[in-house]
């Protein structure tokens, strides 16, 4: 059986095209499993996984937990807000204490970029990055590409625009890496202040005119403004941001072709996307969430097969 070329999933940056196709093929199998009446397989009865979240999450946390349970793994959940981290315990001490309870794999979300990479060098367990600050969110990018593949048949050759707060977005960076590996054409679009300097070095082009970007693309991935990562104002007002970079039904209907609308969530309705677009038949936002479970089952299963 094929194996991933990595022992941890720390970022898309560390994967190659073969790894991504293996994850997708494995996810195809698990997607079929989770649509059966009995949605569970016994594959990981001998594996224990700790989900440790130092930042808020709805989709990623629940999706990982469900993926682990569908694979029959034992699961423990740790939320920093209710833990001894509040009493001054370090990240490594916290994780080593959890691992001493015979845990094999750690899924971690953390506000600091590189937290998963740091942990992987100091503890003896497979680490999955569930989002590290403004750095990477690899399973989100995998489920996004998987959803494009499902909707449009392939990712290669497709024109994908990522719109919004590119500067603070781990989803944007992981998506750029994943889409480029698969041969998609990628543009980023947003206010100049929210586009990282030298982003073109990643093989993407920059467009500050949303209408031009939407007319070019097959897929628009709309991102929210990450206010929690901003200590200054990057644009005058939310109203002006929405006027220039928000998508609405009138704009969508004015395009020459039917584009696919994506959003990693959480959505700020009426800011980057209106409800009539988010809930339209062109939107695959809830398909992305559904596919997240199959993708995370695939990643966990493939990493566990390296541990075993
Ligand atoms: N897309 C995403 O990461 O959502 P959560 O923050 O709710 O996990």
Topology at a glance:
Elements: H1 17-34, E1 48-53, H2 59-70, E2 74-79, H3 91-99, E3 105-110, H4 115-122, E4 126-132, H5 138-152, E5 159-163, H6 170-181, E6 185-189, E7 205-207, H7 210-216, E8 219-222, H8 238-245, H9 249-253, E9 260-262, H10 275-278, H11 285-307
Parallel strand pairs: 1-2, 1-3, 3-4, 5-6, 5-8, 6-7, 8-9
Helix pairs in contact: 1-11, 2-11, 5-6, 5-11
Bound molecules: phosphoric acid mono(formamide)ester.
Structure, described:
The structure is a single chain. This protein is of the alpha/beta class and about 300 residues long. The chain is about 40% helix and about 15% strand. It contains eleven helices and nine strands. The protein has helices spanning about 15-35, 60-70, 90-100, 115-120, 140-150, 170-180, 210-215, 240-245, 250-255, 275-280, 285-305; strands spanning about 50-55, 75-80, 105-110, 125-130, 160-165, 185-190, 205, 220, 260. A five-stranded parallel β-sheet has the order 7-6-5-8-9. Helix 2 links the parallel strand 1 (about 50-55) and strand 2 (about 75-80). Bound molecules: phosphoric acid mono(formamide)ester. The site of phosphoric acid mono(formamide)ester has 10 residues, from helix 2.
